[in-house]
Amino acid sequence: MGIFYVGITDTKWFSLLKEDYKKGKLSKYINFWTLGMKKFKALEAGDLFLFKLHNRKSTGENGEIVGGAFFSHYEILSIYDAWEKYGRGNGRESLQVMQDSLKEMREKNNLQSNISIGCIILKDAFFFDKWIDEPIDWNKNIVSGKKYYTDEQVGAELYRTVWNCINGKYKSDEDIIAEIDTEMEALQLEGQERLELIKVRVNQSVFRDRVLNKYHTCCLCKMENPALLKASHIKPWVASSSKEKLDVENGLLLCPNHDALFDAGFISFLNDGNIIISKRLSSMDCRCANIDPSMKISLSDANKKYIEYHRKNVFFDEEE
């Protein structure tokens, strides 16, 4: 089992270090410094430490993973010693700027002034040209970072993506869609036939695997044979952007029966997960289709924007 850590980075810190990295001027050791002085115990020397942006729509940050390094050691230093030892490796262009940043952060967090800082020392940093999407299980209440394990689903997928990115093999969702579009152009298909084949290819590429890994069983009836389960887009494929087409949060794992009902708008869900059933279905239809008003699914916050779209644009509640 491997362990790695995803730490939330200060954008100024990241931007300056990436600039030095691109110029070939980044030092071997950098300082991921913190306000507190609680010892960092999440990693052992040599373990992977990833840099993650905040999720702030106002600044265009969407929580992406932008680079990483390898943990060396932890130490407590005065801000003066930290500057003397690591210089621009502290992610600031001068001691004065670093002091001003520290003062601003302490005032913002109502912390007492202290000349010492906690220093997570990292080595051999790297930065991505193509950023990696925020982990699907990331909680917005996380303040500093989170430990991941490579023997768990999310950790394993993220770890593979990071190494593919390092080795130049990483493909973003947009890249995957563009490749599929190019492939379909080469086949010279037109209209609905082309759209349907692209949809099949999208599902075959990564979307079904992502949805299957997240849910494992039908969200409604708990059917568990993967050969019988379908990855159903919540916001219809044709209405989704390239990113949405492959977003696991835009998917539900459903048995063929419930997939057909959901896709045709006969059923949908409230934001609390409770099922809503179209008036177009009779009580006999419901019994035969194995649905009833007591059914409920679990929805994440990220699912809900897609469910709202489905409820407003796909679900049809009027009798024919």
Describe the protein.
The protein has 320 residues and is an alpha+beta fold. Helices cover 38% and strands 22% of the residues. The chain is built from 10 helices and 12 strands. The strands form 4 sheets. The chain has a 6-stranded mixed β-sheet with strand order 2-7-6-3-1-8. A two-stranded antiparallel ribbon has the order 4-5. Strand 4 and strand 5 form a beta hairpin. Helix 5 packs antiparallel against helix 6. It is elongated.
SSE topology:
Blueprint (H helix, E strand, L loop, with lengths): L2 E6 L2 H12 L6 E6 L13 E5 L2 E2 L4 E2 L2 E14 H8 L8 H14 L7 E17 L12 E5 L3 H14 L6 H15 L3 H25 L14 E4 L8 H4 L5 E4 L1 H8 L3 E3 L5 E3 L5 H7 L11 H13 L7
Parallel strand pairs: 1-3
Antiparallel strand pairs: 1-8, 2-7, 3-6, 4-5, 6-7, 9-10, 11-12
Helix pairs in contact: 5-6
Notable characteristics:
alpha+beta, two-stranded antiparallel sheet, 320 residues, 6-stranded mixed β-sheet, 12 strands, 38% helix, elongated
- Described by the principal axes of the CA atoms, the overall outline is elongated
Q: How many helical stretches?
A: 10
Instruction: Tell me how many strands there are.
Output: 12
Low-confidence segments, given as residue ranges, are: none
Largest sheet: 6 strands, mixed
| Broad structural category | alpha+beta
The radius of gyration computed from the alpha-carbon positions, rounded to a whole number of angstroms, is: 24 Å
> Termini distance?
56 Å
| Order of H and E elements | EHEEEEEHHEEHHHEHEHEEHH
- What fraction of residues sit in β-strands? 15-25%
